[in-house]
C-alpha cells in the first residue's frame, strides 16, 4: 500500500523548496499537482506548477466531488483533485501533497494513515522576510498571509511531525528522514 505524505505550513515557509529537494532524494515519491483559482506567477505553467482553474470551474468540481480536499486561502481556493491522488495510489506510488492547514485537517479525517508534516519557520520575523523577499505579493497580500500564518502556526501541535526550516540542508535532511522512516514501515 502506497503512503500519502501531507506537507503543510504557512505561505512562504519554504514548502516548495523542501519538497523539490525531497523528491530529488527520494525518487520513488511523486507530487500531486494542486489546483488553484489564483493567477499563475511568472514561470509557472498549468498542469505542472498547478492546475489553474477559474472560480466557476473550481466550484463545479467541488460540487461534482472531484476534490479530496480544498480550502480558501488568502482570497483564493486551493485543492487536491481526487484524480491526482488516485492515479498514483493505484500504481502503488507514494504521493506528496503540498496543501494548506485546512486541507491537511480534511485529509486527516478522510485518510488517517496519511503522514502529516508541518513545516515551521524559525520565527515570525523570518517568515515576514521570506514573504517580502520573494516579491510575488503586494504588501497588503503579505499582511493577509502573515495573519493567516499566525493561526496556522498555532496549529502545528496537531501534526505528527514538525520540521523547522531554519537551515535548508538540515530541514531537508530531517524531512527526508521522516519520509524514509515512514516508507520503511509500509507493509
Describe, in plain words, how this protein is organized in 3D.
- The chain is α/β, with parallel strands linked by helices.
- The protein has seven helices and nine strands.
- It has helices spanning 15-25, 55-63, 82-90, 101-110, 124-134, 139-154, 168-184; strands at residues 4-8, 30-31, 35-36, 51-52, 67-73, 76-81, 95-98, 115-120, 161-164.
- It has a five-stranded parallel beta sheet, sandwiched between helices.
- The mean pLDDT is 91.
Percent range of helical residues: 40-55%
What Rg do the Cα atoms give?
Answer: 16 Å
Largest beta-sheet characterization: 5 strands, parallel
**Helical stretch count?**
7
Total DSSP E strands? 9
Spatial separation of the terminal alpha carbons: 7 Å
* Overall mean confidence score, pLDDT: 91
Order of helices and strands: EHEEEHEEHEHEHHEH
Strand order of the largest sheet: 2-7-1-8-9
Strand content: 15-25%
Spans of at least 5 consecutive residues whose pLDDT stays below 50 are none
Structural class: alpha/beta
**Quick one: overall form?**
globular
Amino acid at each position: 500500500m502506497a503512503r500519502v505524505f501531507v506537507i503543510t505550513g504557512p505561505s512562504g515557509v519554504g514548502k516548495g523548496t523542501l519538497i523539490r529537494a525531497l523528491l530529488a532524494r527520494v525518487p520513488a515519491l511523486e507530487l500531486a499537482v494542486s489546483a488553484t483559482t489564483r493567477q499563475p506567477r511568472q514561470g509557472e505553467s498549468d498542469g505542472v506548477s498547478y492546475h489553474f482553474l477559474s472560480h466557476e470551474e473550481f466550484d463545479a468540481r467541488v460540487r461534482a466531488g472531484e476534490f479530496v480536499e480544498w480550502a480558501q486561502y488568502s482570497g483564493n481556493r486551493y485543492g487536491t483533485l481526487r484524480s491526482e491522488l488516485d492515479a498514483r495510489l493505484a500504481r502503488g506510488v507514494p504521493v506528496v501533497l503540498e496543501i494548506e492547514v485546512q486541507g491537511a485537517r480534511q485529509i486527516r479525517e478522510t485518510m488517517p494513515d496519511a503522514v502529516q508534516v508541518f513545516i515551521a519557520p524559525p520565527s515570525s520575523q523570518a517568515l515576514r522576510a521570506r514573504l517580502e523577499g520573494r516579491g510575488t505579493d503586494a504588501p497588503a497580500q503579505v499582511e493577509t498571509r502573515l495573519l493567516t500564518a499566525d493561526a496556522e502556526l498555532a496549529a502545528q501541535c496537531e501534526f505528527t511531525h514538525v520540521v523547522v526550516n531554519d537551515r535548508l540542508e538540515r530541514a531537508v535532511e530531517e524531512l527526508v528522514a521522516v519520509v524514509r522512516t515512514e516508507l520503511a514501515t509500509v507493509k
